[in-house]
């Protein structure tokens, strides 16, 4: 008999599937927004719609020698969390009060955006060394915690 997934395990499993659409050469990230047990939006990291992907043209950040976690603005791609916000906005869906499931803990820029969207909680599989993001989430009252799943 199989063990039934909890809701959190279910959503995080879907997040890992969404990440497989990523076109980033450095970090594969997926995210989903959930409210009232319904998926509101999904996102993965990659170039804006209709533009060439890093998989096809190479990584601008690698070419410029930019270390991970620095100078986020020098990248062809959008982060998974940014794509959630954009997808929700395009379709007129509020993510206020939503839970966000991410394969990687949100960076400072995404954390600030999620705070302003009114998200309630963020679950992530992999940590990201951004103490200011963590501090701001805490100050804003947005809960965040790691959530590991067994992907077998």
Describe it.
- 35% of the residues lie in helices and 19% in strands.
- It is built from six helices and five strands.
- It has helices at 7-19, 54-57, 60-64, 80-90, 108-117, 131-140; strands at residues 30-35, 38-44, 99-104, 121-126, 143-146.
- It has a five-stranded mixed β-sheet with strand order 2-1-3-4-5, with helices on both faces.
- Helix 5 runs parallel beside helix 6.
- The longest helix has 13 residues, at 7-19.
- The protein is globular.
- The model has no long low-confidence stretch (mean pLDDT 93).
Model regions low in confidence, pLDDT < 50 over at least 5 residues: none
User: How much helicity do the residues have?
Assistant: 25-40%
User: Could you describe the largest sheet, including whether it forms a barrel?
Assistant: 5 strands, mixed
Mean pLDDT: 93
Percent strand equals 15-25%
Shape: globular
Radius of gyration from the alpha-carbon trace, in angstroms? 15 Å
Short overview:
Helices cover 35% and strands 19% of the residues. The chain is built from six helices and five strands, in the order H-E-E-H-H-H-E-H-E-H-E.
Features:
five-stranded mixed sheet, 35% helix, 6 helices, alpha/beta
Helices, strands, pairings?
Layout: H1 7-19, E1 30-35, E2 38-44, H2 54-57, H3 60-64, H4 80-90, E3 99-104, H5 108-117, E4 121-126, H6 131-140, E5 143-146
Parallel strand pairs: 3-4, 4-5
Antiparallel strand pairs: 1-2, 1-3
Helix pairs in contact: 5-6
């Amino acid at each position: 008999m199989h063990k039934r997934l909890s809701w959190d395990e279910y959503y995080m499993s879907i997040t890992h599937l969404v990440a497989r659409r990523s076109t980033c050469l450095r970090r594969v990230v997926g995210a989903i927004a959930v409210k009232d047990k319904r998926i509101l939006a999904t996102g993965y990291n990659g170039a804006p719609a209709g533009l060439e992907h890093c998989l096809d043209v190479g990584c601008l950040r690698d070419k410029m020698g930019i270390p991970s976690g620095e100078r986020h603005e020098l990248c062809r791609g959008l982060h998974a969390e940014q794509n959630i916000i954009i997808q929700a906005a395009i379709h007129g869906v509020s993510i206020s009060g939503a839970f966000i499931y991410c394969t990687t803990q949100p960076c400072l820029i995404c954390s600030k955006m999620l705070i302003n969207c009114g998200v309630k909680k963020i679950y992530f599989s992999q940590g990201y060394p951004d103490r200011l993001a963590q501090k701001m989430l805490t100050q804003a009252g947005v809960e965040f915690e790691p959530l590991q799943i067994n992907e077998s």
